[in-house]
Amino acid sequence: MRYSGQTHILTAIDCIIFGFDGNDIKLLLVQRALKPEKGKWSLMGGFLQQDESLEQAADRILKQLTGLEGVYLEQLKTFGDPHRDPVERTLSVVYFALIDIHQYEKQINDEYHAEWFLLKDKPRLIFDHEDMLALAQQKLRYKAALHPILFELLPPKFTIPQLQSLYEGVYDTTFDNRNFSRKILSTGLLVKQKEKDKVNSKKGAFYYKLDKKKYKAKLGAFLNFIPNPDKFLQ
Amino acid sequence: MRYSGQTHILTAIDCIIFGFDGNDIKLLLVQRALKPEKGKWSLMGGFLQQDESLEQAADRILKQLTGLEGVYLEQLKTFGDPHRDPVERTLSVVYFALIDIHQYEKQINDEYHAEWFLLKDKPRLIFDHEDMLALAQQKLRYKAALHPILFELLPPKFTIPQLQSLYEGVYDTTFDNRNFSRKILSTGLLVKQKEKDKVNSKKGAFYYKLDKKKYKAKLGAFLNFIPNPDKFLQ
DNA sequence: TCAAAAGTGTTATGAGTACACCCATGG
DNA sequence: CCATGGGTGTACTCATAACACTTTTGA
Does the nearest atom of strand D lie within 7 Å of B174's Cβ? Predict the structure, then answer.
């Protein structure tokens, strides 16, 4: 059975992949394989297949590129301007992903010509991918101001100074380190480890792990990670 | 030109229409016109046409049903389970709308068999429309806790007690009226009028109007409309 | 021994919250 | 005159934010 006389449209899934390498927040881009705009930088995407859900498609595409499964993935928005793709009308359901770059150690770079870019010196993107990225950055800032999602970008063990530089990267600013660590520790989400990271400083900074249980409980809660959030959220 | 060999899928737009009548927050539903599930209650929807954007389609559908234009309308999420519609695979891009019920004075009820329901005694909805509604309610609570969007539901002139009962309806709770009015007035968004509403009380309550300029400026800002927001946001 | 980053403590301000009374009016 | 809902004021608590010094250690 079908609904008669209605328009059927192509649907793409595009993924905005944010990563953190311990110092900087970065964006994973690929070089487009199809004409037109072949070879230009673009978000990683693919077409929705007949028997998969949107989430399944996003997972599949993310795994194709990075080899990673179980990654934080969230639907951002659907873009549907009739002329957004010059080839033929294509809806794009956009997801964004947060991954720990060090956990991503893949060769697939070669296959898709993928590359990590600092947000500051990313290339121009095709179609409406610039709008998608801008919206994703806004959403990330918004959500991270209230919920502990940035932990998704960190390795299992991390230091408070690393965490702070992640937040500073996301908001493109600096925070007072005393207030920052107090606020973070007061959430009760972190468990102090015995070892220190001696790579990034002489004194060394204690490692922390995430308390997974509390983390899951607090993902939905309203916390206040950012001072004066208005300042950063347009 | 076309992308070859890819699946083309039907796309629907579904609208979750919240309204406020001065006392209660309500939901506008229609009786489905197509088989299967014909006659069952459903969100107002329609198919995406070839040459319209998603926003245009949502506007068109909303206008068909309510006769209203320029309504607050926001994309919620896209639902894409392969079997969500038993007839054939159909993506649904879901929008939610906020309208002042008194401004809505249309006959089109008849055409679409539309009806306003209290959230408490709404009928069971078809397909995955229950999930859509639950998500919309969650989003509305979330957003209204931080941004002054509930004003979209109010008539041009309204009283503080009305406003409070709107908030109380959305969060299904009661608030302290002293703290509520202080908080609302401290935003500077309201302009006190000379007249009073003498319908709902003997003493009468002063009308207020929204300061449109400040309102637009503060739509994006982080305000705190709700005490203990965690309590209400799962 | 010194430079560089980690880590900790105090205070002032303002927002949030709990709470109780007076006011105006129509019936 | 009184019941009903509207409107205001105060004091306490707690989170936030501003701010400076000591500690550790590798070079």
Answer: no
